[in-house]
Amino acid sequence: MQVKYSATVLIVEDDYNILDLIRLYLENQGFRCVMASDGSEALKILSDNSAIDLVVLDLMLPKIDGWQICRWVRQHTSLPVIMLTARGEIQDKLQGFDLGADDYIVKPFDPMELAARIKAVLRRSDSKPQQIDLPGLAININSYTVKIAGEAVELTPREIELLHFLASHPDQVFTREFLLQQLWGFDFPGNTRTVDVHINRLREKLDCIIDTCQIKTVWGVGYKFVLEKANAKHFL
Questions:
Q1: Which one of 14, 46, 144, 195 has the fewest beta carbons within 10 angstroms of its own beta carbon?
Q2: What pLDDT, in 10s, does the model give residues 12-36?
Q3: DSSP assignment, residue 176?
Q4: In sequence order, which residues have a C-beta less than 8 Å from that of residue 200 and are 6 or more positions away?
């Protein structure tokens, strides 16, 4: 009987006991697993294998560390990344999320929780429209690029994800708490100030060069993405 796999997960981990534990549990949950024990091997697999659906990535790796792997993934693919590490400091988590990690799990961990997070991240990833084209603004979450009037704008992966999420729901107001949960995860150790910081950075980078759309504050509630009325018809 042929096994039907739900998704293919690349596990990048230099501890063979942990690597094998994750593989066994995920395979029992219906995932196909591809494994790498160092950063160089992981990059080769990612470059050669288009069938990968998600990456479980240890940070402290031989040859090429997990930070560099995550940065490469964000520059070249739209693959979801779950960071797996023994380092639980808030600053490490912030750095991971700013690089574009979709979730962050600290060792020791429960394989059941890891599988649940993988499924949740894949659901969120599948629901994203890949390309958003607005008057003067194009956002591609697949290539992690933003263009204004055809010119590329340099944003961090998390800024791109935040802009993409808001632009996917024009005129809809989202609370800071909802945005924090949606983009950083339910157990993110930071607070809603993190959302404010990223919104302010986006405004600094975008408001001075584009006037067809804005991220507006709804006082006492949160934020919404709006199009100028003269251009709203182009979105329909």
A1: 14
A2: 999 999 999 999 999 988 898 999 9
A3: H
A4: none
